[in-house]
Hints:
By secondary structure, this protein is mainly α. The chain is 78% helix and 0% strand.
Amino acid sequence: MMQDYMKALHARFCREPKLQGVREAYRTLKAKLGQQDQEILLQLADLENELRDESPLVSFIADFQLGMGIAGEIKPYCFEDEEKRAIERAKARYPQGKN
């Protein structure tokens, strides 16, 4: 469930760089290689695709978890609490004498 959520966030906010000419270079190289070399090239391309798909997601998840951890350590700001503290400081600074 969390993995699906992270994938959705990654897809929404992370844009993969567009590589121009990669398919054409692949076709040219494939045409010049023998059958055995083509199989090795396909294995390499498959591994590259797996890494390309997995690496950004893993990085995004790690960054997201770090951000959530940092956010969890920060005390939320509350205007009303700040106002009360300011009033208490003012009272301590300027105590009213009883007559």
